[in-house]
Structures are given as structure tokens and as C-alpha cells.
Write a structure and sequence with these properties.
Shape: globular
CATH superfamily of the largest domain: Aldolase class I
CATH topology of the largest domain: TIM Barrel
Structural class: alpha/beta
Strand content: 5-15%
Order of helices and strands: EEEHEEHHEHHEHHEHEHEHEHHHH
Number of domains: 2
Helix content: 40-55%
Number of strands: 11
């Protein structure tokens, strides 16, 4: 599957953008685990235009994570176009590798985004969504993609018609999350409409499906049953970045890997933690890893006291020692994921 000039190989599995989750350390880890492409946390177009340093910093990417998409969001056409131009210059503005792809977020359902007309709030203004997309495609030279949902609510699932209109703007790929905005992340994702878009004879750009892919078997079923070109994994990767290894192994060999034991989870957690320290320093690196560390070990018996220690310690060396203790104490165990891997 190709997105413009970016070749992701056959049946690629990509990492979804997630605020406060998909920073550079996590993106690198997921790429190492087999993700074909990763995406930054979403970047506010208003923040870029106002030259907010924290917003610009979100566009910083590294060679190790390429290919990588920078995702922008907003609802003001001029600001979105300017933000896309800045994303195209991410290497110059934020340093690092830059952006291989510019992705437009028309899918975020949280109230502070959708409630003011950005993210999936744009589903209520499809004409404006199409106009913004067209303007961005015409303004930049890099491939542009869109991530969106089925519609605003059950009575307005407009994705089949909207997909054609978005394709006509010149985008290079479309990712569809199989829920409406009003569903948020509740209920089951409706892959039938994703399949309908993919099997529409008028569609020719790659269609990437997203929603409820929390096992390798579900990923394989999505490819086999709905014919999508690619799959995007989001919440199921949180605390479980090796899901990309599991999916890739099943797709390539037809066999499922056994659950990862705790000793190997500790190895990954330490790799993740060290990347966070290297990239963000000891204070921020420790603080921002707290949301990840305990999730690596969900399902372990008698783990409460150790989890508290992992997420309260401020000392990197103490955290590393605690992780070594986890490997020693629970090393051979391989707990099954508890729907916490995101669903």
C-alpha cells in the first residue's frame, strides 16, 4: 500500500494518533514492534499559527520513527491551510526528521475539540470539511490524508458519500473509525460501512480501517472480511505496543504468538522508559511515563503495591530497580490482556 510516494508494504498496520500517548518514545517503540507508520499527537492549527512553542514541539519527529505523519486539527480554513504549510516544514521548524505525510484530524470526538467544530465536529459541516481538505491539498506538496468517523450520529452516517467527496479533493488515503462522534468510544465499531467505502467501485485511494482492533485475530479478520488496504490500531496499543508484533506475525505466518511474558514486558518497558528519559529529561521523562508503566503489567496478581511504586517514584534509578524486581517476581507469567488494552 502506498500513500503518495510512501510505501508501507502489504497489509500495513499503523499506529493511531493519541493525545498524551503517542509521543516520540512511544512511536519509536511501536515502529520497532512492527508498526508500518506512526502519527504524532494531534497538533492544533491555532497553536501553530500563533507560534506556540509547545505546539510546534509536537511536530518534532526522529529518523527512527519514519515514516511518520504529522496530524493537524482545527475548523478555521485559513488557519488549517497555514498549519499544513507549517507541518510540511516540520523539519525546519521543529527539527528532527520532519513529516512524511500530513494528516487531517476530522475524527476526534472529545467535547473540547468536537464541541467547537473541530475534529469529528466537522461531520456536521461536510461542505466545509471538503473545502478545507481541498485547500490543504492544493497548498502543500506532501501527501495529505484524512482521518474521520462514520458521521455525527446514527441518523447521519454520511461516510460513503463523504469518502468520494474527500477523494475528489486529491487526498492520498482515508482512515475511517467505525463509530459516530456521538458514540465516542462506546459500543462496537461498525466495520460494515468501512467495507462499503472500500468496496465502492468509485474509490481508488487506500482505505484504512480503525476501531476495536485489539487482537491479531481481529486485525486479520478486518483485512480478510472487509478488504481494507490497511489497519490503524489506537487504544489497544496503550500498555501493549507489542500488539504490532503479534498482528504482523499472524498476517505473515498464519500463526498466533503466545502472550508475552512479564520478563519480556519489563525489557520493553525499560526500553520505553529510557527513550523517554533521553528525549525529555529526568523530570518530564518520569512524569510522562507514569501513564504507561503500570499498563504494561495489567492482569498481574498481587501487583497493586508495586504499581503504586512505579507511578509515584520520581527517581529514574528507583523505577529501573522496581522494573527489575517485577521481572524477578513475575517473570514467567504471561497474563492475558484485560480489555484495558483499550477497549
Amino acid at each position: 500500500m502506498k500513500i503518495g510516494n510512501v510505501d508501507l508494504g502489504e497489509r500495513p498496520v499503523t499506529l493511531a494518533p493519541m493525545e498524551d500517548v503517542t509521543d516520540a518514545s512511544f512511536r519509536i517503540l511501536c515502529r520497532e514492534a512492527g508498526a508500518a507508520m506512526v502519527t504524532t499527537e494531534f497538533v492544533s492549527s491555532d497553536g501553530l499559527v500563533r507560534d506556540v512553542s509547545k505546539t510546534i514541539a509536537k511536530m518534532h519527529t526522529l529518523e527512527e520513527e519514519a515514516p511518520v505523519a504529522v496530524q493537524i486539527y482545527g475548523n478555521i480554513p485559513e488557519a488549517m491551510v497555514n498549519a499544513a504549510k507549517m507541518a510540511e516544514r516540520a523539519k525546519e521548524l521543529a527539527g528532527g526528521h520532519g513529516a512524511d505525510i500530513i494528516d487531517i484530524n476530522f475524527g476526534c470526538p472529545v467535547s473540547k475539540i468536537a464541541g467547537r467544530g473541530a475534529g469529528s465536529g466537522m461531520m456536521r459541516e461536510p461542505d466545509k470539511m471538503v473545502a478545507i481538505t481541498k485547500a490543504i491539498v492544493e497548498a502543500v506538496g506532501k501527501p495529505v490524508t484524512v482521518k474521520t468517523r462514520l458521521g455525527w450520529d446514527d441518523s447521519s452516517k454520511i461516510i460513503v458519500d463523504l469518502a468520494e467527496r474527500l477523494q475528489d479533493t486529491g487526498i492520498s488515503a482515508l482512515t475511517i473509525h467505525g463509530r459516530t462522534r456521538c458514540q465516542m468510544y462506546k459500543g462496537e465499531a461498525d466495520w460494515t460501512l468501512i467495507g462499503e467505502v472500500k468496496n465502492n467501485p468509485r474509490m481508488y485511494i487506500p482505505i484504512i480501517g480503525n476501531g476495536d482492533i485489539n487482537t491479531a485475530a481481529k486485525a486479520k479478520e478486518a483485512f480478510d472480511r472487509y478488504g481494507v488496504d490497511g489497519i490503524m490500531v489506537g487504544r489497544a496499543s496503550f500498555g501493549h505496543p507489542w500488539i504490532f508484533t503479534e498482528i504482523r506475525h499472524l498476517l505473515d505466518t498464519g500463526e498466533e504468538l503466545p502472550p508475552m511474558n512479564v520478563k519480556d514486558r519489563v525489557r520493553l518497558a525499560k526500553r520505553h522508559f529510557q527513550l523517554s528519559l533521553d528525549l525529555k529529561g529526568p523530570v518530564t521523562g518520569v512524569y510522562e511515563m507514569r501513564r504507561h508503566l503500570s499498563c504494561y503489567f495489567k492482569g498481574l496478581r498481587d501487583f497493586k503495591e508495586t504499581r503504586i511504586k512505579l507511578v509515584t517514584s520520581k527517581d529514574p534509578e528507583e523505577i529501573m530497580r522496581t522494573l527489575d524486581y517485577v521481572a524477578q517476581r513475575w517473570g514467567a507469567e504471561a497474563p492475558e490482556p484485560e480489555g484495558a488494552y483499550g477497549l
